[in-house]
Amino acid sequence: MARLSVNVDHVATVRQARLASEPDPVLAALMAELAGADGITVHLREDRRHIQDRDLQILRRTVKTRLNLEMASIKEMLDISFEVKPDMVTLVPEKRQELTTEGGLDVKTHFEGLKKFAASLKDASIPVNLFIDPLPDSVKMAHRIGSDGVEIHTGRYAAAAAGRERESELKRIQDCALLARRLNLRVHAGHGLDYRNVKAIAGIKEIEEFAIGFSIIARSVYVGIEEAVRERTRLVG
Ligand code: PXP
């Protein structure tokens, strides 16, 4: 059964819209765990547009499952991860103008930098995943970089029109998941997955964990966070 890590960034997005103290992503994370989430994911962005340092610090003390910190490979974030010691780090590319992470890391261009960065995290006993597009070369480079695993970007699959286009995106993800497993990399996947498109991808048995945020938080506006998480754990399991 695949695990579900619930990304609570968008609870913080609502809070930051009014610079208020509610809704609190910390409380949302605890409720997601109560409903069966296997982990909690947060992305501490350089511009702090949603998750704040305070959230990360409290989550470190309260999350009972596994805390996954998504972050850019910059010195500021490295220092924060050393201090907070999340259960794992997922390195992502980050652009200030984007609405959300738009693609996987350019592992070829940043090969040496990522290698050093991953080594520093591993020296601090923090496991590291690289967020990559479903390309065999990126999987192989993630392996050469020394990453513990990959998170395969499912955004293009999620955005593809149903039919041939979506089937071909699914196949790309499937092939990369298989390759990553063969290279002994941990295989996670995420981005853009919702209550409909997650089913086919949940059939890829090499994927151990899904990181899902926006659609769960959006649904929880209607049904509450616990019900939204419960429905989703059934779909990925
Ligand atoms: N994985 C990564 C690396 C991400 O950047 C995000 C978005 O923060 C997610 C997963 C979750 O994507 P979504 O919010 O579309 O479910």
What does this protein look like?
An 8-stranded parallel β-barrel has the order 1-2-3-4-5-6-7-8, surrounded by 7 helices. It is globular. With 237 residues, it is of the alpha/beta class. The chain has 11 helices and 8 strands. The mean pLDDT is 96. The protein has a single domain, classed as TIM Barrel (Alpha-Beta Barrel), CATH 3.20.20. It binds pyridoxine-5'-phosphate.
Could you give the order of strands across the largest sheet? 1-2-3-4-5-6-7-8
Element string (H = helix, E = strand)? EHHEHEHEHEHEHHEHEHH
- Please describe the biggest sheet, giving its number of strands, its sense, and whether it closes into a barrel: 8 strands, parallel, barrel
Average pLDDT score: 96
CATH-level-4 superfamily name: Aldolase class I
Low-confidence stretches: none
The set of bound ligands, ions and cofactors reads: pyridoxine-5'-phosphate
Distance between the termini: 5 Å
Task: Count structural domains.
Answer: 1
Shape: globular
Which range best describes the helical content: under 10%, 10-25%, 25-40%, 40-55%, 55-70% or over 70%? 40-55%
Tally of helical runs: 11
Tag the structure with descriptive keywords.
binds pyridoxine-5'-phosphate, TIM Barrel, alpha/beta, 237 residues, 11 helices, globular, eight-stranded parallel beta barrel, single chain
List the helices and strands and how they pair.
Layout: E1 3-7, H1 9-17, H2 25-34, E2 39-43, H3 53-62, E3 67-71, H4 75-84, E4 88-91, H5 111-123, E5 128-132, H6 136-145, E6 149-153, H7 155-159, H8 164-182, E7 186-190, H9 198-202, E8 209-212, H10 214-223, H11 225-236
Parallel strand pairs: 1-2, 1-8, 2-3, 3-4, 4-5, 5-6, 6-7, 7-8
Helix pairs in contact: 2-3, 2-11, 6-8, 10-11
The structure holds pyridoxine-5'-phosphate (PXP).
Pyridoxine-5'-phosphate binds next to strand 8 and helix 10.
